[in-house]
Design goal:
Layout lengths: L5 E6 L5 H6 L3 E8 L2 H11 L4 E3 L16 E4 L22 H14 L6 E6 L10 H12 L3 E8 L9 E8 L7 E2 L8 H8 L3 H4 L4 E2 L26 H9 L3 H10 L6 E12 L2 E9 L18 E6 L2 E6 L2 H7 L12 H9 L4 H25 L1
Parallel strand pairs: 1-2, 1-4, 2-3, 4-5
Antiparallel strand pairs: 5-7, 6-7, 8-9, 10-11, 10-12, 12-13
Helix pairs in contact: 9-10
């Protein structure tokens, strides 16, 4: 059976990683972001036919073409002032959700509301303001005739990066066959607590989305790294300074891991910790074959380093933007900004493409296909 094309709107699009994850079956009707740097990355990878560079609050329903199957929104996560924050540009970055939602309401008034909506954000959305923010989002969905549920998926299931993200999926399509009677895979403690904190009328609209456990990941951080002779290493003095920043516990872990002959690769973050009443910069490493969560390059702890031990000794370097892109599931053909800082800004704000593909294949496409299959069978 051939499958018909599906259409989508991509808000807060960044470099178009949701578009990449959705795949070739999906056709983008409009992509929106207000950041010129991200928009340029989107342009060089996807073209400009559907790109609109503007603040979401400046858009109107007439700017959004046709009827769409899906609206995807990876709204800013710098704060969580969602509950009641309909103040537009004065409301803070995360109030951009309400700028997006204003467009969905306008489309609904015209009979053009998407059948599915996906809101992607960090896990803090589930508990921010004592649960008031997630309740406000669910109330907005409910008032427009959507049923909804949330899953929390860590990209580590697909990629060697620890990157948990929450996906709230709201539907007007028939959810039959895609929901379970009780929480299951990807219904983390945070998701369950968010559900428990909702008012009863909203709990009645909640759906426990049914998603299978994915196949076991078979890649590690070391598999995605550039060749040693293709990167710039930090000086021996800088490497020793980095080792000196390890806490006694982390230093012991490093020494234990490097006692054998095998190459050891550790991802390292530098953080400010309180010790004995003083702020101390510490380096914290992980030796589980995963990178830490990639971030935008702002602040002292945002740029991730690599600590490598092998026959050449102990060396350290910054993770490259291309390595970061691979950790987001982007192919090497994906064109990054020439500046490492600009590239990491695009990457750190993105959504892991394989997670989007998993959601599309296992939930979004079955939801949208089911009514069409039923209609064809009648």
């Amino acid at each position: 059976m051939s499958r018909s094309p599906l259409t989508f709107l991509e808000f807060f699009a960044g470099g178009g990683m949701a578009r990449l994850g959705l795949g070739e079956r999906w056709r983008c009707l409009l992509a929106n972001d207000f950041d010129p740097g991200k928009a340029e990355t989107y342009r060089v990878n996807w073209g400009t036919d559907d790109l609109r560079v503007a603040d979401v609050w400046s858009l109107r329903a007439e700017d959004l073409p046709g009827h769409t199957d899906l609206a995807w929104a990876s709204s800013p996560c710098q704060d969580f002032s969602l509950a009641g924050a309909r103040a537009g540009l004065a409301g803070g970055k995360s109030s951009a959700f309400w700028g997006f939602w204003r467009l969905i309401e306008a489309l609904d008034d015209e009979g053009r509301a998407p059948r599915l909506i996906v809101l992607e954000n960090v896990g803090g959305l589930l508990s921010s303001h004592g649960g008031a923010d997630i309740a406000a989002v669910c109330k907005a969905f409910s008032e427009r005739g959507y049923r909804f549920g949330a899953v929390e998926i860590d990209a580590r299931a697909f990629l060697p990066q620890s990157r948990p993200r929450v996906f709230i999926i709201a539907t007007r399509a028939d959810p039959a066959g895609q929901v379970a009677a009780a929480p299951g895979a990807f219904h983390t403690r945070g998701v369950r607590q968010a559900f428990d904190g909702l008012p009863e009328p909203l709990r009645r609209q909640w759906l426990w989305w049914r998603l299978p456990e994915p196949a076991m990941r078979n890649t590690h951080l070391a598999d995605l790294l550039e060749a040693d002779d293709a990167v710039r290493w930090r000086s021996p003095a800088q490497t020793q300074a980095l080792l000196a920043q390890l806490s006694p516990l982390h230093l012991e872990r490093w020494r234990s891991a490097t006692t054998g002959a095998e190459r050891v690769v550790a991802a390292v973050f530098r953080r400010i910790r309180q010790e004995n009443g003083f702020k101390v910069q510490r380096a914290e490493l992980r030796l589980d074959g995963l990178a830490g969560c990639l971030r935008t390059p702002g602040g002292g702890s945002s740029r991730q380093l690599l600590l490598i031990g092998d026959e050449a000794g102990v060396r350290s370097r910054l993770m490259t933007a291309r390595e970061g892109a691979r950790l987001m599931g982007l192919p090497d053909s994906y064109r990054l900004p020439p500046s490492e800082t600009a590239a990491m800004h695009v990457i750190g704000d993105g959504v892991a493409a394989p997670v989007v593909r998993f959601l599309a294949e296992r939930l979004l496409e079955p939801l949208l296909d089911a009514p069409r299959v039923s209609a064809a069978a009648e």
